[in-house]
Amino acid sequence: MYRYDEFDAAFVKARTDQFADQVMRRLAGELSEDQFRPLRLMNGLYLQLHAYMLRIAVPYGTMSAKQLRMLAHIARTYDRGYGHFTTRQNIQFNWPKLRDIPPILADLASVEMHAIQTSGNCIRNITTDQFAGAAADEIIDPRPVAEILRQWSSLHPEFSYLPRKFKIAMTGATHDRAAIRFHDIGLQAATNATGDIGWQVWVGGGLGRTPIIGKEISPFVPHEHLLAYLESILRVYNRYGRRDNKYKARIKILVHEEGIDTIRAQVDEEFAAVKGGVLTLPQAELDRITAYFAPPEFDRINETRVDVAREKIVNPAYGRWLERNLNAHRQPGYVSVTISLKPIGGAPGDATDAQMDVVAGLAERYSHDELRVTHEQNLVLPHVKITDLAALYAVLVENGLAEGNAGQITDMIACPGLDFCALANARSIPIAQEISKRFGAPERQAEIGDLKIKISGCINACGHHHVGHIGILGVEKKGTELYQITVGGDATETASIGNILGPGFVAEAVPDAIERLVDTYLAARTTPAETFLMAYRRLGDAPFKEALYGAD
Amino acid sequence: MAQTSTIATLMAADSVREKRSLAIMALNGLYDEMDAAGVLRHAVAEVLPGDIAIVSSFGADSAVLLHLVAEVDRNLPVYFLETGKHFAETLDYVETLKRQLGLKNVRALTPDPKDVARFDPDGTLWETDPDSCCHIRKTEPLDAAVKGFGGWVTGRKRYQTKERGVLPHFELTSDDRIKINPLAYFSDQDIADYKAKHGLPEHPLYDKGYKSIGCAPCTSIVADGEDPRAGRWRGLNKKECGIHFDFNGAIAKPMVQADLTLFKAGAFIADPFRAYAEGDDLGSVRYTHIPLAVFRANRDVVLANPHPNGLLVAPGDRVEDVAADLARFSSIAVAFPGFTDGRGYSSARLLVERYGYGGELRAVGDVLADQIPLMRRCGITAFVVKHEPTRAALRAGTLATVDIFYQPVGKTEVPLGTRPYLRRATETV
């Protein structure tokens, strides 16, 4: 994985010092809260309901054991013993004190981490496939380009005060695990007519109060011109994106209002002026960065198959875990392992300091010192020998990390909600916990199969509810928290936005409502291979609407 | 005189503008209000030795200053604006004073004949456009003359008009020269007493009721109790001829550090520019930032305006629309109406990088400490700053910045040391 050189280290040091100075000026009263806000946001510091919240960047979701241990240290020393992994592959701490922020940032800098641009109206952490560099279905490893984009976007002087935040996601695989169609810019590895690999570019996707699926702006941009192309998009957005209304300021609105053809023409005009200039990426540099992401030295393994069927008989829990939590690796004899942060009845995405230390140890021992954060709020050990799985699993069991539910109904995304967030209208985590308990039985989950539930505590949609197969949106009506249910969302390459089927439910009624949807699906599916989403697409709203609200 | 020599060193060292400005403030505190000779002697001997000129109208009160000059050094250059429009009595008076005071170096400044032929062929410009008349007969010749000096001495006095009410002994002008006003604190009575004490000859017209004497067509008699300068340009809303105006038409004010909002080249300096105001005559304004939309609507008029002017680029303005005319402007102001509005960064980069604008590029509006480093990288070199903590940080040079960059931005940022890959790529070339 990427390692800082002197330049990167000096950069983060300078940025940390700069923010320490800004914190001092805020504490001294030289900066008003209005003036301080964008500065702290650009350093990942939010003011939440109860306290400051610090969001730390995990660039493209990749970490080393040493880095995760530092996060554990921060959780222990400055917070309440846990951290929360986010849908942007970052981690946030909910209870730091303002005066502790500079030492936290200094600690992070010591392990090549920072909180730069995890918030604010700038280019945010670039996210990607959690199985990057490991997945069997990958065209290229997107992380070298992601790292180059990280560098290009860090403290970009022109794009630090955009109309609104700007999120880029990329995937090097054919199956989109990074929700690229719901980002301001989505990059999909593509091959052109002459067989070169480059990037298909999507623009103007997003969730929030106006969910929109991104539109293709270019079918193919070669690596060498990608920075110039992205700078062109960002410049058009910076100049023409709406600033009169915060809720209409994302690029998706600009694309929607102007039309993709107009935006494409503007971007092309800009690109024509910028292309071939200083932003041209030399192959030598791409090669240099790619070398950092060279695959580890894999062992030759004679065994290349895990006998899941056998294990399900011998040890059902282990068997289920093997069935759900492994992803095919491009190296025979290896798999990528998802470590679920969705224990039954737990808060999605939370990990304690002790659990982080344990996972760090596992990464060192079994995954070439590498681990990933997923946008679905789990952790991944990307390179695990199948012969190590049993030993690895045993450690997970001891530490409450062995839930074999990846991709199942209890593997939910949920935002922090009203328990933490100043923006939220309703609680999210308790809803997730209740649903988790309701469907916690492994047999029940196995019967249901692939089903993604995503929960947001407000219209800003941090919990991606629009793209949940079942989405739950907390709203507040006349002092009561109500939950709107949507069906049919999909964050992958077959992207769709869920439909609202009717009025909202009070919190206590949500698990029943979900259960009725699930039962309707189970009764209607043609075979167990027909997933909830497939069944919904075949059947439409009607049976699910009836399940929720009864026949007309 | 340890203190004064420190000041002299500060000023002579040609150090940054801010030091000069501070030194000026210190100088103003050194002399008793009435110590005109002390002020002049110090200016000539310590502040600008060999680099100073005197400007005199040879008007009603000029004898006092010229007497002081003669006392200090008879060889100092004394400029007289020979506008061609003086009373014959004034020209006589020049000769009288030269003779009586022993001035060895009186030089007449005459208008450029080309200007006169072009703008005042029949000699009636004073009637139709007195500002322009002053401009070609006084401002232009004097500007040319004082360019050769680091400073000049005037006979201006605080009491003369209310516009001059705060005149100090020493001023720093916006073109970085020092103006010395030894008589700043002299009252009408002090002048009369000085004249009497030293037996100085009176201007021949003084006894006829002329209290302030300029060119014949524009000078009239002042009634008892009237402002002595009321007889100048009587009936017109005009109080000064232009030689004591600053660039933008406002009367040159004494420089007080707190009033300076333009930060450029490491110091707060006087700002020659003003903002455009509704109703400005675009054909004649000068040192004005004309909004881009106004410029586009009046392009021909502005392009025909002979004066230096600037352009104001607001968020949302398309700089490509004026790309061909950028060279017309000596300054472009990029507006940041709120510090969170980042459109100006794109405007600045386009102006500099794409359209090759090479003049002063300044940020105006909500300009704060933490945005200035970004603005600089986008090509902005001057900042109009009102936020006091930001001003303090700029003065002290303590802006918190990140000085190494990943991405190449701007024309001046060499890739070397900026983005790692370019750095390495460059090394291998």
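qc> The longest helix of chain A spans residues 6-27.
qc> done
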